[in-house]
Design goal:
The chain is mainly alpha-helical and 501 residues long. Helix content is 73%, strand content 1%. It has a two-stranded antiparallel ribbon with strand order 1-2. A hairpin with a 6-residue loop joins strand 1 and strand 2. Helix 1 packs across helix 16, helix 4 runs antiparallel to helix 6 and helix 14 packs across helix 20. It is globular, with a radius of gyration of 22 Å. The N and C termini lie far apart (65 Å).
């Protein structure tokens, strides 16, 4: 293991790869610092660039964007009380309050260090836990892969929040889109309507760019947005040893919470951040001061949301199940390179896997250095007016979607799903279930049919294999639990409505 990890560091530290990783991390910080531009959007927007790169280089760049954007969200959260990414929502509470006291530099410094600490802990967990899970998963066959796909699809209700019905509708759209093209096993065209461009199915990347990037660009053009200039006084960014010592226990707990929650599919850094913040407030002797500008109130969510980055990659790389929306895009990037996440990835492409591990470590070091020494320049990014930023996003979207297949049809798909994504945002339909279903739906279908071919049409194959039965049981529990939770919510809302009358 250690030999492979050293080889991974040797690959990442090559000048060209390291330069791209640094550029990706810096770009991620800028994306994260801009309110409205999420880590998901940044990774989706730049994934097409990886198509022309060697696999290790492209995937390491995405790691840099991911880590950088999650950290970058804290910049806007602390300075202008607007979380740059959803994962930084909890950082606003104490971060902005501390900035209002004239200690914005100290807030940004502890945010950078806590983010680094959480990222390193999660990268370590990724390095040492993922290979062990992959060894277990080597016993998987078609029935187990089908069960894993179904387990992944069952988290639609979890990522839909309180819009479960709308989330299921979104997932059905993704499943239908995934059925377009040639049948995987018998080669019969499906839902192509005689269009040659649709024989290969709907390309994943244009859909992704449309749903996230183009839809967000449409949303920002709804009204005129005036430029807001903020004057930031940033001094004393380097945290003192006393500050680090004071927040150390909080960072350890936040990192463990973030990594653990990141491993659980359909959670993510925003959930981890709030849980860590709540635990820090509960256990801190200064808990009653949280919300007034406590350093621990910044360290807790920042260590947790960056702790979720490495944790979310564990189920993706070992089992092929994305832990959150960003890793769902990672799944697409891997498939774009002709790679299939799962135990065989560790067996056949161990050098690539350990390059990703090394990239996660170095990306965290890069954003720490940027956060401590270049934060004044990143803060100025917040002043970019939307009327300038939005056209740039549109241009990048067009270039990214077209570059995959040099196809105008892909641009059409991008625009269609851009409009769809915009309408879904407007009417509060969750978008992530479409991505999840588009990726896992074809996998579930093909592995289900292969399983029946192996068993000569008998469904017993799904209950006579222990791992498959366990995964399907967990899937059923997940679905039933989500249904009961929805019913309980509807019942409580009904009682509240009756009381208000």
């Amino acid at each position: 293991m250690f030999e492979l990890l050293l080889q991974g560091f040797a690959t990442v530290l090559q000048p060209q790869v390291l330069g791209i990783l640094i550029a990706g991390t810096v770009g991620g910080i800028i994306i994260g610092a801009l309110p409205g531009l999420t880590a998901t959007m940044g990774v989706a927007l730049l994934t097409p660039l990886t198509f022309t790169m060697p696999p290790a280089t492209g995937l390491v760049m995405l790691c840099g964007i991911y880590c950088g954007a999650i950290y970058g969200g804290s910049i806007a959260a602390i300075l202008i009380r607007t979380p740059g990414t959803p994962a930084a929502a909890a950082t606003v509470i104490d971060g902005y309050a501390l900035a209002q006291k004239g200690q914005a530099g100290k807030a940004l410094g502890i945010s950078a260090f806590a983010s680094f600490f959480g990222g390193i802990v999660s990268a370590s967990a990724l390095t040492f836990i993922a290979p062990q899970l992959a060894k277990l998963a080597l016993s998987f066959s078609s029935p187990e892969y089908f069960a894993m796909a179904m387990l992944g699809l069952s988290i639609v209700s979890a990522i839909s929040g309180d819009q479960v019905t709308k989330g299921l509708i979104s997932a059905c759209i993704g499943l239908l889109v995934g059925m377009v093209g040639m049948d995987m096993l018998n080669g019969v065209p499906r839902f192509t309507f005689g269009q040659v461009d649709m024989l290969n199915g709907i390309s994943f990347i244009p859909v992704l760019i449309g749903l996230f990037a183009v839809a967000e660009a449409f949303r920002t053009t709804e009204g005129l947005m005036k430029r807001q200039v903020h004057d930031f006084s940033l001094s004393g960014v380097l945290p003192t040893m006393a500050d680090i010592k004071r927040c150390f226990k909080t960072m350890v707990k936040g990192s463990v919470i973030g990594t653990t929650i990141g491993i659980i599919p359909a959670t993510g850094g925003d959930i981890a951040a709030f849980i860590s913040y709540g635990e820090a407030k509960r256990s801190s002797p200064n808990g009653d001061k949280f919300g007034t500008g406590e350093l621990e109130g910044i360290a807790a969510p920042e260590s947790a949301n960056n702790g979720a980055t490495g944790g979310a990659l564990i189920p993706l790389l070992t089992l092929g199940i994305p832990g959150d929306a960003v890793t769902a895009i990672f799944l697409g990037a891997l498939m774009l390179q002709g790679l299939r996440p799962g135990p065989l990835l560790f067996k056949d492409n161990a050098d690539l896997v350990y390059s990703i591990f090394a990239g996660m470590f170095i990306a965290n070091i890069v954003f720490l250095l940027c956060g401590l020494f270049a934060i004044k320049y990143f803060a100025k990014v917040i002043n970019i007016p939307k009327p300038i930023l939005t056209p740039i996003i549109f241009i990048l979207c067009v270039v990214g979607a077209y570059s995959i297949n040099n196809s105008m049809f892909d641009l059409l798909i991008m625009m269609i799903f851009g409009v769809l994504g915009y309408l879904m945002q407007k009417y509060k339909f969750p978008v992530s279930p479409i991505v999840l279903a588009l990726i896992l739906g074809p996998m579930a279908e093909s592995e289900f049919r292969r399983s029946l071919m192996l068993s000569q049409g008998s469904y017993d194959i799904f209950i006579t294999r222990p791992i498959c039965l366990l995964l399907l049981s967990v899937t059923m529990i997940s679905v039933i639990g989500a249904y009961l939770k929805q019913k309980k919510r509807e019942k409580s809302e009904g009682k509240a409505l009756e009381t208000s009358r």
